[in-house]
Specification:
The chain is α+β, with helices and mostly antiparallel strands. 49% of the residues lie in helices and 18% in strands. The chain is elongated and about 75 Å long.
Length: 267
C-alpha cells in the first residue's frame, strides 16, 4: 500500500503529494523580497554619492577659492564688507587644550575682541598652540566670522576652519558610496532575476569581502592622496578597478566552489 504522502497517477506510478512545491515557491518569494529590499536600500548610498559630488565637493572647492581670492579689509570697510575680506583681530588667550591621545583635541579659547569671543580648534598642537599660555596676546585672521589663522611671536598656525584644497578624502567617500550602491543594486537584481540560483552571491562569501575591500581601498588611496597632494581624480581611478578586480576574483572562486543541489543532498 502506498504511504499517506503519495498518490497514484492514471498509470499507477507514485506522484508527489499536492502542494509539495510550496516550500520552493516560498523560497523564491523570500529571495525576491530580499532582492527588492537590497535594491531599495542601495538608493541610500546612491543618493549620498550624488550629494557628495554635486553639493559637498563643489561647496568645499568654492569656499577655498573664495578664501584664496579674499584680500585684507581696507581701513574704511563696512560691517557687510568684513564678511568677504580678511580682518586682523587681536585676542587674549584664556586657556588651551592639548590632548595628545589617539582622538586628540587641540583647542584655544580666545577673548577680548569686540565682535567675537570663543574657542578655535586646531589639527595639531604645533607650531604655535603648544607654546601659548593664558594671558598671551595673539593676532588672528578672521574671514566670514571664523578664525582662519592665529599668530604670535612670529609664528602662525592655521585653524581647523581654514578652507583647504584637499578634496581627496571627500572624493574617496563619494567613491565608496557609489561602489556600495552598485554592489547592493547588483546583488538585489541577481536575486530578483535568479531567485533559486543566486548562490554564491550572498553576504558571507561575496558581499562581506567585497565591502571590506571597498572600505580599505578607498581609505588606502584617499589618505595618502591627501598627504602627498595627489590629484583627487586618482582616487576613483585606482579604487574602482581594484574593487572590480576583487569582484571578478570572488566570481571566479564562486564558480569553482558551487553548492551541492538540495536534490543531491537528500539523495
Amino acid at each position: 500500500m502506498p504511504g499517506t504522502d503519495t498518490t497514484h497517477g492514471p498509470g499507477g506510478p507514485l506522484l508527489p503529494p499536492p502542494g509539495a512545491d510550496r516550500p520552493a515557491r516560498r523560497s523564491q518569494g523570500r529571495s525576491r523580497l530580499v532582492g527588492a529590499a537590497l535594491i531599495m536600500l542601495s538608493l541610500i548610498p546612491a543618493l549620498g554619492c550624488y550629494f557628495v559630488f554635486t553639493a559637498w565637493l563643489p561647496s568645499d572647492l568654492g569656499r577655498h577659492q573664495d578664501y584664496v581670492r579674499a584680500e585684507p579689509c581696507p581701513a574704511d570697510a563696512t560691517v557687510q564688507e568684513w564678511e568677504n575680506c580678511l580682518r586682523t583681530v587681536s585676542f587674549t588667550v584664556e586657556s588651551t587644550k592639548n590632548n595628545r591621545s589617539r582622538s586628540g583635541s587641540y583647542k584655544a579659547t580666545l577673548s577680548g575682541a569686540p565682535f567675537w569671543n570663543g574657542t578655535v580648534a586646531f589639527g595639531d598642537p604645533d607650531p604655535l598652540l603648544e607654546q601659548l599660555r593664558p594671558g598671551d596676546q595673539v593676532t588672528a585672521t578672521v574671514w566670514r566670522g571664523d578664525v582662519m589663522t592665529v599668530g604670535a611671536r612670529g609664528v602662525r598656525q592655521s585653524t581647523s576652519d581654514e578652507p583647504r584644497d584637499e578634496p581627496q578624502m571627500t572624493v574617496a567617500i563619494g567613491t565608496f558610496l557609489g561602489l556600495l550602491a552598485a554592489m547592493g543594486l547588483g546583488l538585489g537584481a541577481l536575486r530578483m532575476a535568479r531567485p533559486r540560483d543566486h548562490e554564491p552571491y550572498t553576504w558571507r562569501p561575496y558581499g562581506r569581502p567585497l565591502l571590506i575591500t571597498m572600505m580599505i581601498t578607498c581609505a588606502a588611496v584617499g589618505l595618502p592622496a591627501v598627504w602627498l597632494g595627489i590629484p583627487s581624480w586618482v582616487v576613483p581611478t585606482v579604487a574602482v578597478p581594484v574593487v572590480a578586480w576583487t569582484a571578478w576574483l570572488l566570481h571566479q572562486h564562486g564558480d569553482r566552489v558551487q553548492p551541492v543541489p538540495r536534490e543531491e543532498e537528500q539523495a
